[in-house]
From TrEMBL:
Residues 1-12 have a biased composition (Low complexity). Residues 1-21 are annotated as: Disordered. SMART domains: TLDc. InterPro entries: TLDc_dom. Residues 302-485 form the TLDc domain. It holds the Pfam family TLD. It comes from the Eukaryota. This is TLDc domain-containing protein.
Length: 541
């Protein structure tokens, strides 16, 4: 006789609910999700309003802006909340579907579609779908073509095709940045429908270099000569969605996390009691530093999109709230050019550092203002060491190959000796000694960039326009070094410098008591002999 089971098997509905709850809890705590679901069930517009970004008056960078802000941009952002709600939460957004547990599972299902762990290509496809829906509600031009999938849940599983014009890519990137801004610069701010205060003015970052990078990667800008003077325009050659996806996955993978992060932040704010949190932070969002530092807010965001570690959050914050000038360790226009000046500012800093180098190629003419400038950035995790050989460090963006010739930093030794084959003095990255991928000379006046064939450490690809196979020699305009280790690392560097100053002061001091009198010193005897060697001197016995 077999014993009957004392517990009945769960129903398919209960099994699905448990699966959806388990999947959602990996992205956000279930109590927060339940509170958000309860508040979103009050009215039909509660969830779309909660998913909308805070009200703000965005303006394009530059004066006058090189890329004007499209007139439909604010309408596009206003339609962002309804687009997300209809794409993922359509069956749980209305009050009719939100009675008891009847709408809880669809709510979790929609949350998991955009926030659960998924391949980066699918996350980007979902983001492009949201962008297309927001453009449709705003009446904005959009070259994305949606191909619906099969099945009940095919609304977000179909392919995304079409072509994006350069201006559309810029608008898409600005939308992604505004989604990040809503979480970092506007804590606790309600959605666009709930805040009746005056919208805050927000300066958008410059994304021209990102649009140009996508266009070059897709072949829309075929030759290097076309890079100089290139401008974003709606009538420029477009980039196919498949090519744009490949560029994002290889160059800016952080864009794939934009939608899931945004939805999590808005759901978290919806679950919290935001009655007393209606202020929008305006820290550094209206100050344009594009003409002040090489590390602009646009470059900081581009670096954040390329990283997949904790430093990405630091650069993302810098792109939203502004650059913290206290992190600037060295700037050649302020501290002076040269390796010794650089070393006096960077020595003892054992933490992540960003080096930005601005130069112009001599092939572009002697006119520095001709627009043929370029910037190279190097990110290191452990600071610099003075050695006469390459050394290994952790490269933050993991662009590594077979060799480990990451950094070369060689100063003149204090005690100079004869060297048959003296090592070059300067900074270098990649390659080998004598054939460095990037070499910055001792005076910080010249930089040499070589073809990637000499380098087996970093990934292949051109670093500057018009590079070719021959080494490119360029004149250095400015060099910046930013310390990214935080206050603790800066305090350790200050303690190191104070200790070195004490040692230097001790080495300069001479205790005369340790020497005998001058009359009995051998130095005086030798000087007297040199002055008159024929003088008869009595020998002391």
């Amino acid at each position: 006789m077999g014993a009957s089971s004392s517990t009945a098997s769960p129903s398919p509905e209960a099994h699905e609910q448990r699966e959806q709850e388990t999947l959602a809890s990996a992205a956000l705590a279930l109590p927060l999700l339940r509170a958000a679901f309860s508040r979103s069930s009050s009215t039909a517009d509660a969830l779309p309003d909660a998913l909308a970004p805070p009200r703000a008056s965005f303006r394009a960078p530059g004066s006058p802006p090189a890329l004007p802000l499209p007139p439909h941009f604010h309408d596009l952002l206003a339609g962002l909340g309804p687009a997300i709600a209809s794409q993922f939460f359509g069956r749980a957004a209305g009050a009719a579907d939100a009675a008891g547990d009847a709408g809880w599972v669809p709510f979790l299902r929609g949350f998991n579609r955009c926030c659960a762990r998924t391949p980066a290509s699918r996350s980007l496809a979902l983001l492009l779908r949201v962008y297309a829906a927001a453009c449709a509600s705003a009446g904005a031009p959009c070259g994305i073509q949606l191909q619906e999938g099969d099945g009940e849940e095919g609304a977000d599983e179909g392919k995304v095709a079409g072509e994006l014009a350069p201006e559309e890519i810029a608008v898409f990137l600005w939308m992604c940045w505004a989604m990040a801004w809503s979480a970092l610069a506007a804590p606790g701010a309600p959605g666009g429908g709930g805040d009746k205060s005056e919208p805050v003015a927000v300066l958008l970052p410059d994304v021209t270099h990102l649009v140009l990078s996508a266009s070059v990667s897709a072949g829309a800008v075929a030759d290097d000569a076309g890079i100089w003077g290139w401008e974003v325009s709606s009538d420029g050659k477009g980039v196919k969605v498949q090519e744009f996806t490949s560029w994002v996955l290889s160059t800016a993978p952080g864009l794939g996390n934009c939608l899931s992060r945004y939805v999590r932040d808005r759901i978290r704010l919806l679950a919290a009691d935001s009655v007393e949190e209606t202020s929008v932070s305006t820290v550094n969002t209206t100050f344009d530093t594009s003409d002040v530092y090489l590390l602009t807010r646009g470059r900081a965001w581009a670096i954040a999109l390329s990283l997949r570690n904790k430093l990405a959050e630091n650069f993302l914050t810098a792109s939203v709230t502004g650059i913290d000038t206290d992190d600037l360790l060295y700037r050649s226009s302020v501290h002076g050019k040269g390796l010794s000046r650089f070393w006096s500012c960077a020595e003892g800093y054992h933490g992540p550092m960003l080096i930005l180098l601005s130069a112009f190629s001599k092939g572009g003419g002697e006119d520095v203002g001709s627009g043929r400038r370029w910037v190279i950035g190097v990110l290191t995790e452990e600071g610099f060491e003075s050695k006469d050989t390459f050394y290994v460090t952790y490269y933050a963006s993991n662009l590594t190959g077979k060799e480990k010739n990451f950094i070369y930093c060689h100063l003149h030794p204090q005690m100079r000796t004869y060297e048959a084959n003296p090592k070059p003095v300067g900074l270098a990255f990649g390659g080998t000694i004598g054939n460095e991928r990037i070499f910055l000379d001792e005076d910080f006046s010249k930089v040499v960039v070589r073809h990637h064939a000499v380098d087996k450490t970093y990934q292949h690809g051109s670093l500057i326009p018009n590079q070719g196979y021959l080494p490119v020699e360029a004149s250095v305009l400015d060099v910046e070094v930013w310390g990214l280790g935080g206050e603790a690392t800066k305090r350790q560097q200050d303690m190191y410098k104070k200790r070195e100053d004490i040692f230097s002061e001790q080495r300069r001091k001479v205790d005369l008591k340790t020497f005998a009198s001058w009359e009995d010193s051998p130095e005086k005897m030798m000087m007297d002999m040199m002055s008159d060697p024929n003088t008869v001197r009595r020998e002391d016995r």
